């Protein structure tokens, strides 16, 4: 009897991350090294500082509008002085070839460690969330709460998909909610499973909701506001088209998810993650609606505290300037408070907090490895060369072709630099002046930037999709199979809006 051929599974999230990191290291040997001079405001000195790409030397200048005009910086002076533009920005026309710095085997191996150092804030945040959830799981609060909610929503489960997608998209469009969504998966995935859907439905509602909001940012300070200031235009320019895109985008995403979810609910075998269904359900302790545990007063109070933590987190990030340190502190305090109110005892609080945090070690480490890509590109001095090559390729084209290719350029750049603020300050000062040459408003370039970055955010391994998938035990290939048709629709939507902004705006 012939031996049965062993089926090869798709690489794990860790393997995919390391492959992308390896590609970045190889590119440092192939792509010529080069960079742009950078312009920044030194708050301590109260002056502008220009850093030379050629030798790293720095020159200081008075913090005046005349200095900005001298270097062709179109951003307003106040945007530097008040901290809106807080990172160095590239200076157009200053690209310089520099000494090559190819990243060898040791650099490649150490980059993952360096990435974890760089991502320590989000790693700690993830551990704190895991610890908090560990205590709630030990109490049985999640099972009781999810069971009660599922029973109450019986026959109206579709509402959950709409509400989750809509609310998270609002967070994406207003303050760039992305990394923060990690906290929602352990809470919401069991609800989706208990409602008869699968893990991919939950990931889609959370991650696609965040991504569509970011893709059509309206007042997001980290993307559209910063990008607009870097281009020298008001962030309100083009907001009507972005609002239209946001409404249409949410509708498209919700309808797309609902179509898939209904198919899965009617026939679980049609789930893209069907092979892992039993494992996923066991991991997330999907509620048994025939045997719902008692939902005690203590459980209700603890879940309210947990949910209020999210409300406080959103308030802190959107209006108080919070970042991962403050968010981690919030969930640490919440975990301790929940344990005390739950009456489980000091030893149980510590033990279950540690156990809960340990469940997310893989997720946290992937976040660190993903950071290694941008670190290697910077160390290899090739980020500037990639930007220079792409900007040169689109210069001087007819307006319609120019803006379509510009969006695709930002898709490519977003693969390597998945930071909205970092990409804005690196690329917009270079790309925006090209709009003047072809005769279109600079705000259209800003729109192309957020649309392009938004599209690649759905799938880029350097973003948050791999940690999200690792959290719910869904492989990357299953996600790509699910999301690619939707990306095609959203790409067409982005192109139509860009052309509309040129010819109707």
The proportion of residues forming helix, as a percent range, comes to 55-70%
Helix-strand pattern: HEEEEHHEEHHHHHHHHHHHHHHHHHHH
Shape type: globular
The strand count comes to: 6
Question: What is the helix tally?
Answer: 22
Low-confidence parts, pLDDT < 50 over ≥5 residues?
A: 1-7
Q: Strand-residue fraction?
A: under 5%
Secondary-structure-based class equals mainly alpha
Describe the sheet with the most strands: 4 strands, antiparallel
**Mind telling me the C-alpha Rg?**
24 Å
Distance between the termini: 70 Å
Largest beta sheet: strand ordering: 4-3-2-5
Mean pLDDT: 87
How would you portray this structure in words?
By secondary structure, the chain is mainly alpha-helical. The protein has a domain at 110-118 and 141-292 and 360-505. The protein is 68% helix and 4% strand. The chain has 22 helices and 6 strands. It has helices spanning 13-30, 65-70, 77-81, 105-118, 120-139, 141-152, 158-175, 185-194, 199-215, 221-231, 239-266, 277-283, 297-319, 324-342, 346-358, 361-379, 383-394, 399-416, 420-438, 442-457, 465-472, 476-503, and strands spanning 34-35, 38-42, 47-51, 58-62, 89-90, 96-97. The strands form 2 sheets. The chain has a 4-stranded antiparallel β-sheet with strand order 4-3-2-5. A two-stranded antiparallel ribbon has the order 1-6. The longest helix has 28 residues, at 239-266.
